[in-house]
Specification:
Elements (H helix, E strand, L loop, with lengths): L9 E2 L2 E2 L7 H18 L1 H17 L28 H21 L13 H15 L12 E3 L5 H10 L5 H4 L37 H18 L10 E6 L6 H4 L2 H6 L5 E7 L14 H11 L3 E5 L6 H5 L5 H8 L2 H8 L3 H7 L5 H6 L5 H5 L8 H13 L5 E6 L24 H11 L5 H6 L14 H13 L35 H15 L6 E3 L5 E5 L17 E2 L2 E2 L9 E4 L19 E4 L10 E4 L15
Parallel strand pairs: 3-4, 4-5, 5-7, 6-7
Antiparallel strand pairs: 1-2, 8-9, 9-14, 10-11, 12-13, 13-14
Helix pairs in contact: 1-2, 3-4, 3-5, 3-20, 4-17
C-alpha cells in the first residue's frame, strides 16, 4: 500500500504521517530534487537518493522501507519507445484471433458435446501474447536460437486460433477442442491445456494454473545460463517468458523459487502476470490490491518490476493531475471496485470513480461517457506492452516481472467483461455473437449466425489479405511459428546389469543412510564405464563434491580413514575421471596422470582437452574449521 494512505499510518513500525514543521524548507528540498531530475535525469537522481538513504542509515536515521510505487505505470510516457509495428494490420488480425478463440469454445458446447472451456481468459491476455508474437518471441529457426515460452494454460484457445489462421490447424481440429479421444472425423483432438505429451508437435512445456509454469521457467532460464557459462551452447540471444495469472501466483510453487532466480541474476527471464483481478469465481483481492502485493513480493525477492496499469488514454489525465489527486484516487481504489466499474458503463465510472474527488471530476468534465468508457487498462494497450517488453529484454542483472492490468472478458460484451462469473461462462448467445462480430468487424452475416447459433462460423481471411501477409512475415523474420515442438532427442543406451552388482553385496555390519545407497549406485555406474565417482566422503560421512573456485588445504587436513584418501595423500582416482591436477610446482603431467597436493599451494583440476572451459575449472572442496578454511577465488 501507499505510505501516504490514511489506512496505513505505519510502515515497518515507523510513522508515515508526521507534521511538517518547516514547509518552506521541505519545498526547497522538493525543488532541488526536481532540478536534479530535470538537469541530470532520473538515473542520476536515483543514485543520489540511494546514496543519501545509505548515509541516513549510517547516522541512525531510520526510514520505512519502500516496497511499492504509486499505482501508475512504471515507464513514463516520455520514456516510451517508438512502436515499430503496423498498428492497423496487427489490430485487424488480433480481432480475427479473438473471434475464432471465442467461437471455438462456444462450438465445444454444442449438443452432445458440452466439454467446457474458458472463453474469457484469452480475451484478457490477447494483447500480451500478440505484442510478443509480432516483435519479441523468437522461433526455432532464429539465428540466435528459439525462445522458451510458457503459455498461460486457460488461454490456450488463443494459441489454437492463431495456429488456425497460420494454416497449421483446420476447422475440424478446432472442433476437437477438449475431445482428444472423441474428436470429430478428420480432426485431431486439442488438449484443453498445454502439454507436450498430449500434442507432441505443438506444445513444448506443460502449464496450467497450479504453479508449474513459474518454477519450470526459472529452471529453464537457469539452465540456459549454465549452458552459456560452460561454453556448451551460445544462449545469449534466447529468452524465457512465462505467462501467468494473478490468481495463480497464490500457489506456493509460483512464488517459492523467486529468490533463486534473483540470486542467479537471470536477466534472460521475464514473467508476464495477467492481472485481470479475477480468479475462478471472483476477485483475487476484492478488498486489496494484487498488483501492489505482487510488486512488493517480487521486489523483496530481488526482481526488476515493471507495472503496466493504464492505457494511453489516461496519459493526458495524469499529465493534467497537478495535485496528484487522480494518482491518489487510483491508489485508494480497491480491486473489487475496479471490477465493478468494468461491469457497468462510462456514466457509472464518472460518478463513482472520478466523482469521489472534485479535482478528478474536473479533469473529465468535458468528456463524454463514451470517452470515459473507452479508457483502457495498460495490459490491453499494445503500445504500453511493447514498451514493457522492450525494457524487460534490455534489463541486465535481474529477472523481470511485468504486472499487466487487464480486463477478464475484454471485448466479449457486457455479459462477460469484469463479471464474477465470467471464468465459468462457456458460450456466447446469438445476441452476444452479433455484438462481438460488430465490435471486431468480422465479415460474417446475420444469416450465417442465425443458421445455427450453437455452431457459429470460424473466420479465415483470403490467402492474399495484406494483414495476413504481414502476420506471416513477422513470424518468418522472428524464426518461425510458436509454439512448435521438434523432437531432436538422442536416445541414450542404458547401462547393463553389471552396473548394479555393487548393490547386491549389502553393507555388512555397517549402518547406512539413503544417500549411501545412491552413492553406491553412482559408483557402480562409473565403474561400469571404467571410472570412479566424482565425489568422496569426508570425516562425517557426508559427500564432499568438487566445486569451482576453492583452494586445496594443507595435506594434514586431508587425512582420512576412508577408502579414497590415505595419510594426507590425494589418490588420483579420488577425483574426477579425465581431469588432471596442476599446481605452481607441477606442470609437466602426462594426460590422465595426477600430481599430489603441495601444502599451502593453490591447485586446479582441469580437463586435459577443455583446459580453457570455465565450466570445467574445478577445485577440491573439503570441510575445514574456520581458521583453516581456504581462500575462495576463480581463475
Amino acid at each position: 500500500m501507499s505510505p501516504t494512505s490514511d489506512s496505513t499510518p505505519l510502515i515497518d513500525g515507523l510513522l508515515t504521517k508526521v507534521t511538517d514543521n518547516d514547509p518552506e524548507e521541505t519545498k526547497e528540498w522538493h525543488e532541488s530534487l526536481d532540478a536534479l531530475i530535470a538537469d541530470k535525469g532520473a538515473k542520476r537522481a536515483r543514485y543520489i537518493l540511494l546514496s543519501m538513504l545509505a548515509q541516513a542509515r549510517q547516522k541512525n536515521v531510520t526510514v520505512p522501507t519502500e516496497m511499492t510505487t504509486p499505482y501508475i505505470n512504471t515507464i513514463d510516457v516520455a520514456n516510451e519507445p517508438y512502436f515499430p509495428g503496423d498498428e492497423s494490420a496487427e489490430r485487424t488480425y488480433r480481432r480475427w484471433l479473438r473471434w475464432n478463440a471465442a467461437v471455438m469454445v462456444t462450438r465445444a458446447q454444442r449438443p452432445g458435446v458440452g466439454v467446457g472451456g474458458h472463453i474469457s481468459s484469452y480475451a484478457s491476455t490477447a494483447t500480451l501474447y500478440e505484442v510478443g508474437f509480432n516483435h519479441f518471441f523468437r522461433g526455432k529457426d532464429h539465428p540466435g536460437g528459439g525462445d522458451h515460452i510458457f503459455f498461460q494454460g486457460h488461454a490456450s484457445p488463443g494459441n489454437y486460433a492463431r495456429a488456425f489462421i497460420e494454416g497449421r490447424l483446420s476447422e475440424a481440429d478446432l472442433d476437437g477442442f477438449r475431445q482428444e479421444e472423441s474428436r470429430p472425423a478428420g480432426g485431431r483432438g486439442l488438449p484443453s491445456y498445454p502439454h507436450p505429451r498430449r500434442m507432441e508437435d505443438f506444445w513444448e512445456y506443460p502449464t496450467v494454473s497450479m504453479g508449474l509454469g513459474p518454477s519450470e521457467a526459472i529452471y529453464q532460464a537457469w539452465f540456459d545460463k549454465y549452458l552459456q557459462g560452460a561454453g556448451i551452447k551460445d544462449t545469449s540471444q534466447q529468452h524465457t517468458w512465462a505467462f501467468l495469472g494473478d490468481g495463480e501466483m497464490d500457489e506456493p510453487e509460483s512464488r517459492g523459487m523467486l529468490q533463486l532466480a534473483a540470486n542467479q541474476q537471470l536477466d534472460n527471464l521475464t514473467f508476464v502476470i495477467n492481472c485481470n483481478l479475477q480468479r475462478l469465481d471472483g476477485p483475487v483481492r476484492g478488498n486489496g490490491k494484487i498488483i501492489q502485493e505482487l510488486e512488493a513480493f517480487f521486489k523483496g525477492a530481488g526482481w526488476n518490476v515493471i507495472k503496466v496499469i493504464w492505457g494511453r488514454g489516461w496519459d493526458q489525465l495524469l499529465a493534467a493531475d497537478k495535485d496528484h489527486a487522480l494518482e491518489h484516487l487510483m491508489m485508494e481504489t480497491l480491486d473489487g471496485d475496479y471490477q465493478t466499474f468494468k461491469a457497468n458503463d462510462g456514466a457509472y465510472i464518472r460518478e463513482h470513480f472520478f466523482g469521489r474527488d472534485p479535482r478528478t471530476a474536473e479533469l473529465v468534465k468535458d468528456w463524454t461517457d463514451d470517452e470515459i468508457w473507452a479508457l483502457q487498462r495498460g495490459g490491453n494497450d499494445y503500445r504500453k506492452m511493447y514498451a514493457a517488453y522492450k525494457a524487460a529484454t534490455e534489463h541486465k542483472g535481474q529477472p523481470t516481472v511485468i504486472l499487466a492490468h487487464t480486463v477478464k472478458g475484454y471485448l466479449l460484451g457486457d455479459h462477460f467483461a469484469g463479471r464474477n462469473a465470467t471464468h465459468q461462462m462457456k458460450k456466447l448467445t446469438l445476441d452476444d455473437l452479433k455484438a462481438l462480430r460488430d465490435r471486431l468487424h468480422i465479415p460474417i452475416t446475420d444469416e450465417q449466425l442465425e443458421a445455427n447459433p450453437k455452431m457459429p462460423p470460424y473466420y479465415r481471411p483470403a490467402a492474399d489479405d495484406p494483414s495476413l501477409l504481414y502476420m506471416m512475415d513477422r513470424r518468418r523474420q522472428l524464426g518461425g511459428f510458436i509454439p512448435e515442438r521438434r523432437d531432436a532427442g538422442v536416445e541414450l543406451e542404458l547401462p547393463g546389469d553389471k552396473t548394479y552388482d555393487i548393490l547386491k553385496g549389502g553393507s555388512g555390519k555397517q549402518e547406512v543412510a539413503s544417500h549411501d545407497g545412491l552413492r553406491a549406485s553412482a559408483q557402480g555406474a562409473h565403474q561400469g564405464q571404467g571410472h570412479r565417482p566424482s565425489h568422496r566422503p569426508d570425516r562425517s560421512g557426508r559427500i564432499a563434491h568438487l566445486r569451482p573456485g576453492v583452494a586445496l588445504p594443507h595435506q594434514e587436513d586431508l587425512q582420512h580413514s576412508g577408502p579414497e584418501l590415505h595419510a594426507g595423500r590425494c589418490r588420483h582416482d579420488a577425483v574426477l575421471p579425465g581431469v588432471r591436477l596442476r599446481s605452481a610446482h607441477a606442470h609437466g603431467h602426462q594426460r590422465g596422470r595426477f600430481g599430489l597436493p603441495v601444502p599451502g599451494d593453490r591447485h586446479e583440476l582441469r580437463h586435459p582437452r577443455r583446459a580453457h572451459d570455465p565450466g570445467l575449472h574445478l577445485l577440491l572442496d573439503v570441510r575445514l574449521p574456520a581458521h583453516r578454511r581456504p581462500v575462495l577465488g576463480r581463475r
